[in-house]
Structure formats: C-alpha cells, structure tokens
Specification:
It is a single chain. This protein is an alpha+beta fold. It has helices spanning 18-25, 43-55, 80-87, 104-118, 139-143, 188-211, 228-237, 260-271, 307-312, 320-326, 341-346, 348-351, and strands at 3-10, 14-17, 33-36, 63-70, 94-99, 123-130, 147-154, 159-168, 220-223, 277-283, 286-294, 315-316, 355-359, 365-366, 382-386, 390-402, 405-418, 423-427, 441-450, 457-463. The chain has three domains: 3-326, Thiolase/Chalcone synthase (Peroxisomal Thiolase, Chain A, domain 1), CATH 3.40.47.10; 337-347 and 389-465, OB fold (Dihydrolipoamide Acetyltransferase, E2P) (Beta Barrel), CATH 2.40.50; 355-388. Helices cover 25% and strands 29% of the residues. The strands form four sheets. A nine-stranded mixed beta sheet has the order 5-4-6-7-1-8-11-10-9, with helices on both faces. Helix 3 (80-87) links the parallel strand 4 and strand 5.
C-alpha cells in the first residue's frame, strides 16, 4: 500500500505559560504552556512552514496533489491549498482544502492515500494547521495551541499504511458557527463518552482487525483528543499502555486542533524504528484510524529540526497582554497599507516560490527581477532562478516607525546575502532586536505582511534559524 515518504512539522517560536494566563484572570491554571502564533502568522503560513519542512531537499516534479486541512482557514472563500502549491511551484497539482471538522487532517490523508492507490497522483502532500480561537478566561483558552504538520504520501514511503477505517456521526461538539468568535463546546461528559470515545474505539478496533495486529503489537498510539485525560482514558480502554499512548504535546504546546494528530504522528515517526507499528487517529463528527508500519529505511527519512527540537526551540511571552497583541485581540488604529491585487498577481513568482533572476552574461543573481543586470549592465539577458532560503545579514537597521505607528520595540530591517547569490531586503521576525548583528545567520519564513486592500498579503521574512536542517 501507499505510505508516508517524508514528514515535517511547525510549532511557533512563542509560548505562553498557563500560570500567566490563570493569573491574568484569577482562575486556576492548567500545567505547562501553550504555543502562540505571532501576529504575522496564521494557519496558512504555519502550513507552508510544515510543507517546506516535509519537502526539503526533494524533487517535487512528481507532486500531483496538495491537500490543506484546517478549521481556521484565513479565507472563507479562497483556496489556501492553492497558495501552498504556488509556494512549492507546483501549478499543475490538484489542490483541495479539507475543512469543517477536527479530523480533516486524517480525512485528507485518506484521500491522498486513495489518490496514490488509484494512480491519479504519484505523490501527494497533506498539510494540516490550526490556530483555533478560544474564549478568554476559559480552560479552553489555556489548552488550545497553534501548530502545523505535513506528510508526503507516495507508493514507496518509508512508513507504509497497512489498514485504514473510519466511522461518521453527526455529533454536535465542539463547533463554531460562521458568526461565532470562539469555539463552543458540548456538555463535557457526554461529548467525551459519546462524541469522542465511542467513535475512536469503533474506528481503531476496525483498523486493527483489518491489519491483523493486536493492541500489544502497537509501538505508539497517536490521536487527536480534546484533552490529555480523555486521550489517556480512551487509550487505556483500547488496551494501550501509558508508554504506547504518550503524548508530548498537551503540556508543552497544547491541543493543536486539526494539526494535533499529524504533529503527534510526526513526533512518533521521529522516534520510530524499522518494524514499529503505529496507530493514528483523527476525531471529529466520527473518527478515522490508520495503522502504519515503519519500513527498513525509516531512518533515512528523518530530518532535523524534528518535533522535539521545535518544542525545545521557544521564546516565552512575558505577559498575557503580549499574547493578546500577538493574536490581534486588542483594538488597533493602525492605518491600512496600500496594496493591489493586480500588483500581487504580477509579482507572484517573486512573492510565493521566491524566484529571482540570473544574468546569463556574467552570472550575477539578483532580486527583484530587472531587465538590466546590476553588475555588468547587460539588457534582457536574464533567466529565472529559485533563490535559497538561508543566508547572512549584510547590514541592518532598527525601525521604530512602522505603518505610521511608533513602536516602543523596533522592528529589525535587514539586508541579507543569500546562499547561492542574491542580496535582498527583508523584515526580521521572532527575534530580540538587540540580538541582530552583521554576519548573523538567518533563514526565510513565510508570513502575513498585512491586510491592505482587504486581502491577505503574504511574503517572506527572516528569522534566526530554529535549528540546522540536517539529516538525523
């Protein structure tokens, strides 16, 4: 059967201690901390980060499908998967957004597996990301976290899918209507016993029966669950031990919504050895269960940074107010930047797959694209070239005045010499301004610049490297 050839994850740099959240509202605090997406991040930018991690160093000429699973798409009417395909420079790929349910990630994975099995796609990319809104001062606000994961599916994956099964049930909980600001929840005990546990048990039992494996033969059980207690109790009823059902995410980054199951899978694959059997579960309006077996070459597919690295690579927000600013939950009177859908379309090759030009007369690489070479002056001697997404700071400034607003903490503006050529001007993010220096190593990150002209303007920024992307 088809399987997973590569995987990657993304967890935002910033964290908020749940004690800080409890103190802000004078309410009990859950243990641990949660991952917080910055003001220039959303489910699409996080999905792009995970997609780039999963496809790093690979030839994508056979990538025929891109699926994006989320309940928090930045658009109500515009396909986010098409943007991911554009960043990966795969305009011929079938693209689809899978949404409306917390099990959208595993549903998209099953669709990708079917596409490979049917021969309609050679490889398919499944991306899942979420940044779910939660009502302030609630336990849900403390529990929710932001993140993304991506898996590349092919017929010769490092981990094969042995069996898949699913059940569907129209069950109200949790939910969010179009006009709702926050996720709503059902009566907790009924939701746990009937909305979650029953559907998960049915799907897992069916999948294990189809695979011929027993619960004690499973190395890891990874699943979406509304909270750690529900996850542990359901796993126990299925016959899994606490070692089989360990989840590193709830305490360290939170409940990642649609992305939780695939981020947990990525973490399990990071640790998997040849022959290990994994059970993956997505839940929401029913459940999907997949049984996977790690192949002999699983070690060759592992990359850094892995999920453990991303959990460890963090910056703590000092206050709850900082969290509110990051999530844009505070009113702001900033002016709307000038923007143009026509210009954004015209520059799409530069803005999304990050394409520059190289002079065929002297070999100089430059960005943005110009007719005349900045080095030798040759006219119309340019060829398109993909620019690298790593480099070093050539020079920089710290700008307190951004978008007509004076900021106490300045924004670093950097000129970067990219590996392989090209000198480009960027904003810098996820960094203490006092740490920026000439010669500093950086990597590019896909972010939302602003919402000028009523649409999301995406482009690249720089940040300090989370970790070197090297083979594990």
């Amino acid at each position: 059967m088809a399987g997973i050839a590569a995987w990657g994850a993304y967890i935002p740099t910033f964290r908020l201690d749940r004690k800080t959240m409890g103190k802000a509202w004078d309410t009990p605090a859950l243990p641990g901390e949660r991952a917080v997406s910055a003001g220039d991040e959303d489910s699409l930018t996080m999905g792009v980060e995970a997609a780039l991690a999963a496809t790093a160093g690979r030839d994508l000429s056979d990538l025929d499908a891109v699926f994006f699973a989320t309940t928090t798409s930045p658009y109500a009417e515009k396909q986010a998967a098409a943007t991911i395909a554009a960043v990966l420079d795969r305009p011929s790929a079938l693209t689809a957004d899978v949404t409306g349910s917390l099990r959208a990630g595993t549903t998209a994975l099953r669709q990708a597996l079917d596409a490979i099995a049917a021969g309609s796609s050679r490889t398919a990319l499944v991306v899942a990301a979420d940044a779910r809104p939660a009502e302030p001062s609630t336990a849900t606000e403390q529990l929710f976290g932001d993140g993304a994961a991506a898996v590349l599916v092919s017929s010769d994956g490092a981990s094969s899918v042995v069996a898949a099964a699913g059940v569907t049930e129209d069950f109200t909980g949790p939910w969010r209507r179009t006009a709702d600001n926050y996720v709503r929840s059902f009566e907790p005990k009924l939701d746990t016993e009937y909305g979650y546990a029953r559907s998960v048990r049915a799907a897992v039992t069916d999948a294990l029966d189809r695979s011929g494996a027993s619960a004690d033969a499973v190395s890891r059980f990874v699943a979406y669950a509304p909270d750690p207690r529900t996850f542990a109790s359901t796993a126990k009823k299925l016959g899994f031990t606490s070692e089989q059902a360990r989840d590193p995410l709830f305490v360290t980054v939170g409940n990642l919504g649609t992305a939780h199951a695939l981020v947990s899978l990525a973490s399990a694959l990071d640790d998997a050895r040849p022959g290990d059997v994994l059970v993956l579960v997505g839940q929401g309006d029913g459940a999907d269960a997949l049984v996977l077996r790690a192949g002999d070459l699983i070690g060759n597919a592992k990359r850094r940074p892995n999920v453990a690295d991303l959990i460890a690579s963090k910056q703590m927000l000092p206050s709850y107010e900082g969290y509110l600013r990051f999530r844009r939950l505070l009113p702001s009177e900033t002016s709307e930047p000038k923007s143009s859908t026509v210009q954004y379309w015209r520059d799409r090759r530069q803005a999304l797959p990050f394409e520059g030009v190289r002079c065929t007369a002297c070999g100089q690489t430059q960005f943005p694209a110009n007719r005349a070479c900045v080095e030798c002056g040759a006219l119309d001697k340019m060829e398109p070239v993909k620019l690298q997404k790593r480099g070093r700071v050539f020079t920089f400034t710290l700008d307190h005045l951004v978008g007509g607003e004076y900021l106490e903490t300045p924004v670093p503006k950097v000129v970067v010499d990219l590996e392989g050529g090209g000198r480009v001007f960027f904003d810098m993010t996820d960094v203490d301004p006092s740490d920026v220096h000439i010669g500093m190593e950086i990597e590019l990150t896909f972010r939302r610049l602003h919402d000028g002209a009523g649409f999301h303007n995406y482009y690249w920024k720089t940040r300090p490297p989370r970790l070197a992307a090297v083979g594990a």
